């Protein structure tokens, strides 16, 4: 890769290769500074963006940031690239592509048709030229709909993952959190438990509990125990009632090896879940989580900035037609996203980039207690994301995950967003809430009456 250079105000800036150009064009974030990749200041950052804006989009097909021979994610990106879908923008520079995305020509239909033709590097590059408002405006035009027992991503809807984690996987504690969440109308995206143990018997026990709950109350929901894909495969072999296969993924082969997975194993998990045919309104069976900084934390970033590596993870997810994908945006900590400004920006970037690539994106609006952020900042991010058309968010009791030790959203937060922006749950789940008399005549969640509580506690 040859060097890139520009002279601004009499000073010449040189970027030794495309990796350096992309990293220096990124908004400031602590992870890139930790890796020694970030711009040395705003003047260099602006210079990099000037150069990037003039770069042809096709350069990313000709100059892989991670070597093709050494990385199966790069091979996946290039070998599955849809040249016909790419054709409408193939003559554009990165800057022209940004202008087009913000134009009337970039309709919901046009963006859906374009998605298979976009590589993650193209998408990451254009996001680096966008303000936060641009990221919101472009994402709001993207619509990605998936389904299993409920349909996620329809216009005017906001789904929620109900996350009833417990530090000892105590069934009674988990059940209390689930009941509390259901009474607030949560759980239409998934009821998903992060298990405290990676034991296969414990995974099966939790799956059985969730399925008994679903059947007893006839809830049109999908459940997931967020165990490693190998544990999900063992659970399926033992006849467990598994709906979704979960896995954390990253943007390079080496980083995925750190998670104990590769593309072949993910395909095996997908095919095993599909063979169960448990979906009623759709067949999307995969659930992926990502997060900026995961490749860097595994020393598997190949000198590429953390946001671009994050978007490369979306190419992995796209290959498996998932029901749900979410970035756990502030979970890794301030070493990668230092404060609320960086967390908010990263959440908007991840959501927009995932949607442009055709993914059903959600966001865990969250932070760790040693980051320079608080719940007011999460209020800001969740409101921006809801206006950007996020498919789903994650909520935990009281916004405090006592098992994973981080701060997220509460049931109240999601309910408030739905009221504020006139967003509704997934249609199948909304119909269930009506049958359970949890919605009033105007379709609003009402305080449960005695009859409702007796039915739920039976």
From TrEMBL:
Co-factor binding comment: Binds between the large and small subunits.
Cell membrane as UniProt keyword: no
Catalytic activity entry: ethanolamine = acetaldehyde + NH4(+)
Cellular component GO terms, alphabetical: cytosol; ethanolamine ammonia-lyase complex; ethanolamine degradation polyhedral organelle
Keyword field contains Signal: no
Cofactor: adenosylcob(III)alamin
Positions with a binding annotation for substrate: 161-163, 194, 289, 364
EC number, UniProt record: 4.3.1.7
Pathway: Amine and polyamine degradation; ethanolamine degradation
Gene3D superfamilies (UniProt xref): Aldolase class I, ethanolamine ammonia-lyase heavy chain domain like, lyase
GO biological process terms held by the UniProt record: amino acid metabolic process; ethanolamine catabolic process
One Pfam family linked to the record: EutB
Annotated positions binding adenosylcob(III)alamin: 195, 247, 297, 403
Main enzyme class: lyase
Top-level taxon in the UniProt lineage: Bacteria
Function per UniProt: Catalyzes the deamination of various vicinal amino-alcohols to oxo compounds. Allows this organism to utilize ethanolamine as the sole source of nitrogen and carbon in the presence of vitamin B12.
Quaternary structure note: The basic unit is a heterodimer which dimerizes to form tetramers. The heterotetramers trimerize; 6 large subunits form a core ring with 6 small subunits projecting outwards.
Protein name: Ethanolamine ammonia-lyase large subunit
Organism: Solimonas fluminis
